[in-house]
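tool_call: predict_structure(chain=1)
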Amino acid sequence: MRKLLLAALLAATVFIAGCGSDTDDAALPQFKGQQRVIAVFPGSPDRAQDLTDAFKSSPGLGQLKVVWFVVGPQEITSNSEARPDRDRLEKLHTVDGFQSVLVGLDGKIIASQLGGLDIQALLDSLNQMPTEQ
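tool_result:
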């Protein structure tokens, strides 16, 4: 009886996990299939400005279909006119303190960094994803 209950529970869990649609899984659905997203979450306005400057001086992000968002404590800066609301972006921020997150073309989080930003390391992680090559 116990084995039957465990098997039924496992089957129900697998079924429920498979019922979500792709849009439900996308971190930022408006960019899914079109652009990759890097979102960074600095703790101070000065750090936010430094990160904005770093993104603006990074060559080739547009060619790689990368949209970036610096979600600072006071404002959000980006290289995109299309901006999700702060609440949507904050859902990507899963830790206290600084974090950067890379969202792939499939709308799912590919990589996350804590403490500092290494744009090249985030982009290198794209090459390790079969759907991103």
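agent: The longest strand covers residues 36-41. Proceeding to next step.
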